[in-house]
Amino acid sequence: MVRINRDNLFLHIPDDKLITIKKVVDKIEVILNKHEILSTDFLNPYEIELAKSILNKFDINYSVEGGYPHAERNIIYMYPEHLSDIEKDKINYLSIKKKEDIDHRDVLGSILRLGIDRNKVGDIIINDNNIFVFVKAEQFSFLRFNLNKIGRQNVDFTNDEFSYEDMEYIEKKYIVSSLRLDTVLSSVLKMSRSKTDILIKSGRVQVNFKIESKNSLQLNEGDILSVRGSGRMIFQSIENVTKKENFVINMKFPK
């Protein structure tokens, strides 16, 4: 029987991700011994990279899927090395007619109040007409029958199909004196640097799905910023540098 030596295996794993990654290692041990096909819950990109850093140490195969190309939250399917491909549990999506004043937090909050764990839910995509919620097949039927309201509004399910091209973002330009995390957030959130510093130091800010406590962190194009209570944004690009050496940056926000 194979027993994984866990000494020093988790040294690079942050404390807040230890439980998630230890579950992955538990599954690896089962696969090595019983040759089963197993999968994780939905993981964010940072958790995926941490899991890969462990998976690549062992002789097993794995694939990462989230229900559509370029999904943000994904499931890792793990299986014995002698298998080149497997039949995976289907990732389904709920298609819900969009109504006014419904946003990502409303949808997620309504799902969590039904007792569904956050890790059982994949991406939530909202466009002008629909809300698409990606879930494992095991949660699909439960939500289809029990998700009756989002906020105060009744839920109307549709048969509309999801298309990756339908994802919509709002782009905005900002002029900032530097690419420091606190400087960019101060401009985007329209608050003082001292207040953004409090947000960062209190653990309410994530960069690329990792809690960031360094207010002087230099941002790079493509970085994904999340601020608890204010939502998510993407540092899309640097459009220009002014004569006063300020940066004109493009930020994208999910619509």
Automatic annotation (TrEMBL):
GO terms for molecular function: RNA binding. InterPro entries: Nucleotide-bd_a/b_plait_sf, RqcP2_RBD, S4_RNA-bd, S4_RNA-bd_sf. Keywords: RNA-binding. Residues 179-239 form the RNA-binding S4 domain. SUPFAM superfamilies: Alpha-L RNA-binding motif. It comes from the Bacteria. PANTHER family: MITOCHONDRIAL TRANSCRIPTION RESCUE FACTOR 1. This is RNA-binding protein YlmH, contains S4-like domain. It comes from Peptoniphilus asaccharolyticus DSM 20463. The lineage of its organism: Bacteria, Bacillati, Bacillota, Tissierellia, Tissierellales.
